[in-house]
Amino acid sequence: KLFFTDYGNAAKVERCDMDGMNRTWIVDSKIEQPTALALDLINKYVYWLDIYLESVEVVDYQGRRRQTITKGRQIRHLCGLAVFESYLYTVNSDNLSILRINRYNGTDVQALARLDNAKEIRVYQKRTQAAVRSHACELDPSGMPGGCSHLCLLSSSHKARTCRCRTGFVLGSDGRSCK
């Protein structure tokens, strides 16, 4: 799945399949300007920053069990969001510090370091990386991912895929080759 925020005409947090199909609104009320998103892949939670409402909130993948983690004026200066173990990590663009926030009580906030020009943060750790299993976009005998000549995008499951073409090309009638 692909998770993303939108604060155009109607602000929301959404998800869809990697090929763009099955687009679903997860959060579409009491949300104004969601600017950063983080996923807890193990427990299947979505965290986001709303800089207009000055809050960090969480829901499950279906948009249920919504909770506010922390709220306050300091949120409007946050950008980027990552989750790892018991903490959320973010960047304070006002003083360029990396912050650690306890994701269960929101009150344990600690500045960890200062970085010039930081706007985003990511946590890379082996336990957060999904195990690779066979999937529909694996290379076929001719070396094409999922048999697609340009792009292979996973669909509704790891066993389904959609072929797409780079800009300037159109998908052929076989659903795999680009012309």
TrEMBL record:
GO terms for cellular component: plasma membrane. SUPFAM superfamilies: EGF/Laminin, YWTD domain. One of its GO terms (molecular function) is Wnt-protein binding. Transmembrane segments: none annotated. LDL-receptor class B repeats lie at residues 1-43. One of its GO terms (biological process) is canonical Wnt signaling pathway. InterPro entries: 6-blade_b-propeller_TolB-like, Cueball_EGF_LRP_Nidogen, LDLR_classB_rpt. This is LRP1B protein. The gene is Lrp1b_2.
